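Message: Study each token:
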Amino acid sequence: MKELKATTGYEMALAVEGSVNGCEVVLEGAASAAAKRYCLLRTGFFGDTGKGISLLTLVLLAGLVVKSFYPIEIPSFAQNDSGVEAHNEFTQELSAENFVPGYREYESAFAAVYPKQEIRVDVEDCTGYEKTGQTVKPVIYTDHQGVSGDGIYMEENCQTDFCVDVEEEGFYELSLEYAPVTESDSAVECSILIDGEVPYRELERVCYDRIWTRDTQSSEAGCYLTEQAEWITGVTYDRERRIAEPLSVYLTKGEHRVSLISIEEPMLLHQIIFSQKRQIQEYRDVKGFWDAVGIRAVRGRTVVIEAEQVDRTSARMEYPEREEVGMAAMPLRALAHAKEAKRSMIGGESWDKAGSWFEWEFEVEESGYYQISLCFCQNYAREGACRKIMLDGAVLFQEMERYGFAYGWGWKEDVLADDTGDPYVFYIKEGRHTLRIEAVPGETEVEKAGIGQVQPLAIDWIRIVPAGNV
């Protein structure tokens, strides 16, 4: 937590203005009385006519009174998390009043049209940059902290506008090519507006990961991950991961204004990418296609991945090669075998944040069907833990978007399988690949408002087994 400091009325006024500025567009066209009251308040204090009492003046006076008669330390919005909290309260009120639809409601309002066109919005397409309510010239770097290429510096509480020319109407998956610019463990967070409006609630606050990679040259004991210093192409997810798949927007033919409002953590923005929305089918359909084109089970070497030898992750980790894993919810803990209490593993109680992930590289010698099994421990929650399973950056079929790991007393190895116990097979081509496992909320957790944590899971090892060997 950041240190609190005394704040002047002027600082508070600037912070309040900064937290309100940029959110006005969410309320445009709102029909409810609450929205109208807010708009009237906004117009009265900040309107171009100059009528009404200035909110800046009121906050200044309030600050002076507080400083004079009640000299306590007040958290600075500019240097603490108060601005973020104010943003959260504001967007929660909007959602509660249903000013903005949810993603599923938004998605169902349009025809299922998925153009193959890809649109890349570059730095030169920037049409405006606002900082603390004033339009200023954006700062563009061509080489910053080892990241080469043009990038707009987006600091916290700024709004950056871009012009997008769409030739084909339909749903587009939204991605950013970006680079975090500060040393921090926090993800980059922002709001996304299309033509001055937030299309649906989940875009009010989205996040983009930092990536930490294995540092095999590090001599520091227990720490072998360093932050990746290069452009990251990240798809857009809602902050709480209540929507399993990447978010998309429906764009009509013609020009559109896309705005990014930075909430937390600055970044360099290289490109905005609108690509074809991917349709993920059920396992039976995917497997049927694979069978139809001649994919078959293969025999060969089983690949074993030691889970703690992670190649990339969304969070910095510092831990020894062997880590204690407590038997958190296991009855008769005293009777557990010693091996159950200490293993070389990854995850556990620290892996309980929605959206956090681990990624491993592996190689197979022959193309064909493989099974994936994990040695894991999930004795934390009886309702189980859910994870998204991705190969080479993609979910191969719907059942891998929220795969459940059942509660159990201790460590066990299970193959990824359906509800009847029939193992899933994965088509993997010869060569090098990546396996990513991401923490996502379960079906019951998705229904909860404001969920940010998920059930923990510990993994000891992963095996990629040729299906012909089984």
In short: Residues 55-69 form the longest helix (15 residues). The helical segments are 9-20, 33-46, 55-69, 82-96, 103-108, 283-292, 338-341, 443-446.
